[in-house]
Write a structure and sequence with these properties.
Elements (H helix, E strand, L loop, with lengths): L29 H8 L19 E4 L6 H10 L15 E4 L10 H17 L3 E4 L3 H7 L8 H6 L3 H8 L4 H6 L5 E4 L2 E4 L5 H4 L3 H14 L16 H4 L2 H15 L3 E4 L10 E3 L4 E3 L14 E5 L2 E6 L2 E4 L4
Amino acid sequence: MPRPIIAALLLAACQTPIEVPSAVASPATPTEVAEATATPAQAPTPPGASQGPPDRVVAIGDLHADLPDALAVLAMAGLVDESGSWSGGQAVLVQTGDTTDRGPDSLEVIELLMRLEGEAAAAGGQVHALLGNHEVMNMVGDLRYVSPGDLADFENSEARARAFSDQGELGRWLRSKDAVVQVGDTVYAHGGVSPTFAKVGVKGLSEAVRRSIDAEPAHPVLRDTGPLWFRDYLLADETIACEMLAESLDTLGAKRMIVGHTTQRSGRIGVRCGGAILGIDTGISSHYGDNHAAIELRAGDAWALYPEGPVDIEDP
């Protein structure tokens, strides 16, 4: 498929929160969300958590509709072979959302993850493809960041809208996905889980996001303090951010949070709060500079994976 020429890198575009259109003004506060949907978060096995940590977990950030870069970073992490088929065995892949927009390959990237989900399961592994703000924007009809090449890939805007609707194959699959997942002692989300929303619990947050996409797109769980948009752990003063993060992790019964969404200008994994928060949106797609990176966790030990080799990073 022909690729559009990227004239300049637009790294600054993801560095400040994007306002959700005024037509979806919040009808409730996050506190009201927590009170209405809270589930016990400190049970022996937190809601939505895996039953014990797997031997190897790989987390990959925003792919933004760039199939060649998506395959390249998956191959770098040892999860796919030269044909693009699953080669990760019993590893767990967590992709933290934003598979669509910016680039031309939303369809192909989502279909790749759909296929790998089945191939990994057959090999004893697992794929968690999380929802990001851009998937949800597409599902609710906000197409501000859809590229011309992406639109052409679906033939026209009407066909693309059908594909992302609750009647389309992509839309049905995306509506089945989680917004937040916990694997072992690590919580994964696209933006981050604030202390208020942590009270809802991992399972409750994903259920609230799925329910709100079609029934109540103005719901606070889909807004800037919800798990798809929250940026404070990577952008706020670290003293404040780390205190908030510690509260959330304590509520969720976890030690670490791994998030995408907030692009790291350095092209390297962001590490704050003694390794308790890792930012993995390094700008993997060509739109942001082809900065390939991933996180690998083995028995709780975190390594940053880069094309030139792995780098041990701080653990909480």
